[in-house]
Amino acid sequence: xxxxxxxxxxxxxxxxxxxxxxxxxxxxxxxxxxxxxxxxxxxxxxxxxxxxxxxxxxxxxxxxxxxxxxxxxxxxxxxxxxxxxxxxxxxxxxxxxxxxxxxxxxxxxxxxxxxxxxxxxxxxxxxxxxxxxxxxxxxxxxxxxxxxxxxxxxxxxxxxxxxxxxxxxxxxxxxxxxxxxxxxxxxxxxxxxxxxxxxxxxxxxxxxxxxxxxxxxxxxxxxxxxxxxxxxxxxxxxxxxxxxxxxxxxxxxxxxxxxxxxxxxxxxxxxxxxxxxxxxxxxxxxxxxxxxxxxxxxxxxxxxxxxxxxxxxxxxxxxxxxxxxxxxxxxxxxxxxxxxxxxxxxxxxxxxxxxxxxxxxxxxxxxxx
Length: 369
Hints:
Largest sheet: 7 strands, mixed
CATH class of the largest domain: Mainly Alpha
């Protein structure tokens, strides 16, 4: 159906709508290439409202490419703490170093040049090129695939890479041949429409859509059908026991391996499976501590893209001893709060020692046991 639809008819209504209805967002106030880049990476898998304080903190501490390139890893991960997908910020730093070495410290404007940078794919390259530099390049993400599928009545499976590629090619052609198209306005309009009107979950707000009169999905009552997405594989469930090992105002942290899930971050000690108290105390002793008291602190669940952690937590109070050398740390709670990046997967348990993670870090909430 997209083959029979004149995409050019979408341009002016969308651009006029966006210019009148665009949200005021911090990265739009000064849409520098660096700000666009940071915001787009942060916004992957994360809601706009959640990103705002992260963006403000990150760009204050690391205001430009040069600062990002030389930032120590522990500080970098701490600034990203709570956003998840930590390889994204590691890739950003590697790309920043590429920019310093290969592009004299200036983020390139060319779409193809942007694609040579670590962690920058078609969508991010299109966003930076179009929004910051006014270049005619599409930025196709899930929002764009959804709104175009609905307005054109396209029933292709948007989970297929070939469908995304075809959409990019069509939008490239549209942008190159339409003089009335303003690249940054058009691309942000598509993003905004998908975020605020033609929403992914729940009923779309068709009465506020600039394409309401021409939308095939609305006219043919296909809103609940489109876009077509094949169901993803079921996540693997992993059960685990999480430990808050506490010696007064000190806690135990463990640095995860350099590769794999949550690589290089600092976690709360944990055991595979749901363990009984006897096994927990034995494990704590094996780490070099004298257990004094143990107390359950409830259950929690954290969902990754391919696995779910189902956790049971315990606070273990210990006597003053030193942990075994290696990847184990015994640190003050305040030091842990300020210096070590702890994954959001442990946020429920970190609250018990007043270490807020993610959105809690910006609201100051926490628990004390």
